[in-house]
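Design job #97: recover the sequence.
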């Protein structure tokens, strides 16, 4: 009986995932963000080494440069995949919920358009959270997780933007400034926070919509 229930549950999960346009790209996004998180940790540790042990860091400077290039490539790829996932996620939401207020194109615009995104990102995430909260059961917990990540995401993004501007301005004015390693270390830490939050958002939101699709076909 237990084996039959487990098999049935696995089949329902498979059918639910296969019915979603966002499922495949969602799994790819999570993998990319995990890799990006790993590179971010490595870059942060090297930046810390630059602060506390400059002679040792010099031996690893070429590795740091290589990691920075690879991280940039993974970051650009992750952004593209994230936008594809966001578009498909909202296509799924429009199929699962009647009159879901945000279109796939509208979700992309809320994240990409400067100034507008200051309101749009929070609106997109809070709309998702509000819609799943009323579903009850485990959906309430998932919706609260999404909502709890909105403020930290804004904090890390704004902090990272400000620190990056300061770091590059200081580097342009005085490349030998002894405080530059500190600026870049803090920038790495904030970037790491952004990646971790986006990873948790992607996992939580994809779990919620998969469970919703499972409920719809059961």
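Job complete. Output follows.
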């Amino acid at each position: 009986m237990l084996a039959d229930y487990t098999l049935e549950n696995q089949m329902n999960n498979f059918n639910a995932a296969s019915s979603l346009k966002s499922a495949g790209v969602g799994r790819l996004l999570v993998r990319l963000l995990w890799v990006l998180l790993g590179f971010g940790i490595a870059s942060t540790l090297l930046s810390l080494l630059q602060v506390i042990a400059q002679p040792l860091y010099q031996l690893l400077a070429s590795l740091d440069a290589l990691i920075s290039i690879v991280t940039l490539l993974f970051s650009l790829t992750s952004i593209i995949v994230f936008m594809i996932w966001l578009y498909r996620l909202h296509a799924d939401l429009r199929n699962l919920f009647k009159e879901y207020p945000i279109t796939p194109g509208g979700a992309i615009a809320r994240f990409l358009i400067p100034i507008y995104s200051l309101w749009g990102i929070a609106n997109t995430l809070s709309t998702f959270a509000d819609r799943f909260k009323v579903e009850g059961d485990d959906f309430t917990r998932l919706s609260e997780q999404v909502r709890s990540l909105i403020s930290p995401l804004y904090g890390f993004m704004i902090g990272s933007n400000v620190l990056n501007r300061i770091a590059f301005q200081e580097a342009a004015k005085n490349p030998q400034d002894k405080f530059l390693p500190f600026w870049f270390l803090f920038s790495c830490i904030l970037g790491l926070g952004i990646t971790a939050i986006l990873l948790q958002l992607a996992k939580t939101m994809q779990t919620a919509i998969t469970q919703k699709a499972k409920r719809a076909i059961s």
